Amino acid sequence: MPITINLDKILNERNMKSNELAEKIGITTANLSILKTGKAKAIRFSTLEAICEALDCQPGDILEYRA
Amino acid sequence: MLSKNDNEIEMNKNLLLRIVQALCYFFKGLISVSIVGITILLIHFQFNRSSYDNWELEFKGSKLKIISNSEENPVYYFGGGNPVFNYHMDSKKSIKGFEPESKSFDNWKNGSLFFNYFKFLIVLILAYRIFHQISNIISSVKEFRTFHQINIVAFKKIGKYCLLIFFLSIFNFWRIGDYSRASISVYLTPILLSLLAFFLSEIFKEGRGIMLENELTI
């Protein structure tokens, strides 16, 4: 899929661990892992909103289109 | 909103599912008894043909009529439904100077007897397998595994079994005494059931795709 998730990069920049983020946004670590590895088929606006709020970033910082 | 536990209780209480499952068990039992019954009849017939000389076979259009020569004289019709297409060839072998053999069951020729026995046996086994698959599907629905891969396979199997029954019901061959009948009958019901099962299999496949997509939506 040409859409990639840059969650690892943002997490490193914010010095935050995956399980910490999962707890903050209220999803399981397994689901966060699916999202990070690009296995997810879709992402809900509510999840995206929660991630942006927790990481203090924009959706464009997390999602990237690569042709 | 109902929790998964509440849903489970609701599903187990679902009367329609329970009725269908009970019917499946009933038909499976009935078919098992029929399989044993026809096998016992065949074995008994091999050893004591004379006890069936009261029974006669009469070809009536596309159907068979079984007549008893006993005092009550009951008449039974054999063959289910009307075929959409039927072609039959009757023949009577007679040798000059000899009385033709009667159509009573004791004159049932072995070739035709075993052909009909195995055909009927295979149809019964396939019908048993169909009810078994339906029962499995209902069990998985009760366990919230409706769109599991096994249900897609189960519907495909039902479709294949119905298709086999359709092909098996096409050719018929009877030879009793000097009378014989070979016929080709095309019944619409098994082929329609087969198409319905394949159609349901595709619907369940689509359902599974949607379910997986939903599971992978974060």
TrEMBL record, chain A:
Domain HTH cro/C1-type: 7-62
GO molecular function: DNA binding
UniProt-listed InterPro entries: Cro/C1-type_HTH, Lambda_DNA-bd_dom_sf
PANTHER family: DNA-BINDING PROTEIN (PTHR37301:SF1), DNA-BINDING PROTEIN-RELATED (PTHR37301)
TM region positions: none
Family annotation (Pfam families): HTH_26
Organism listed in the record: Christiangramia lutea
Protein name stated in the entry: Helix-turn-helix transcriptional regulator
SMART domains membership: HTH_XRE (SM00530)
Phylogenetic placement of the source organism: Bacteria, Pseudomonadati, Bacteroidota, Flavobacteriia, Flavobacteriales
